[in-house]
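Bench log. Compound arrived from synthesis this morning; before running ITC I wanted a structural hypothesis for how zinc ion sits in the protein. Inputs:
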Amino acid sequence: MLQTNNKTSMSFLRKAGVLPLVIGSVFIFSFTPRKEHKHAPIATTKKIVLVVDAGHGGTDHGTSSGSLIEKDLNLKVAKRLGELAPEHNIEVHLTRTGNETVSLTERVERSNKWKADDFISVHIDNQPGQDAGKGTFDIAINNKNAQAKKSEDLAVAIYQHLASTEWTQCKAPSEKSLYVLRSNNAPSVLIEIGDIKNKEQMKQLTDDTKLNALCHAILEGVADSHKE
Ligand SMILES: [Zn+2]
């Protein structure tokens, strides 16, 4: 019964000249590319030396919430930035590569010794009332940095790229009195990547695709700030 019905409907469609259209549409729709964020790396002709500073470490845990510890999340993001950096012609040096205690002075000394073109300190925030909604990023700069104007340009470039990613909002760069920014020879910014109490945001840091998108956005901002 079913087969007969099928034959009838197929011959009806063929007679009506609809079949080629139906087959054509199926073909087109099966090969229509899915609408995904296509990553086109921004890279400069000159290699950029970027020092990435994973905040805290060792005996200094930073902030925490449940099983989440800031020093571990910071290091995860810092390492991912290092892994993806070559696509943007950026060479990343990390102020710490494991769970060790590194003083603020050592962090700045390392950055200056490596002659960083840019310095990014990675942190996670813990603000009251940040456990709902998408939460925000916070990018900080310091106007006493030797290259304050370039720090601001870097912060704005990163801000623009982060703000264009789909997964969170981003606040405009703000002025903060922080040693690692103030004493660094390189243009320097500190990014608070989300809030540790914000479950939705922290989940994004464990999703590889989203973490990569976040890191690419930061690296694109760095590369963009060096475009002539
Ligand atoms: Zn921190």
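What the model suggests: Residues 208-225 form the longest helix (18 residues). Helices lie at 2-15, 19-30, 70-84, 104-113, 148-164, 179-182, 199-206, 208-225.
ITC booked for Thursday regardless.
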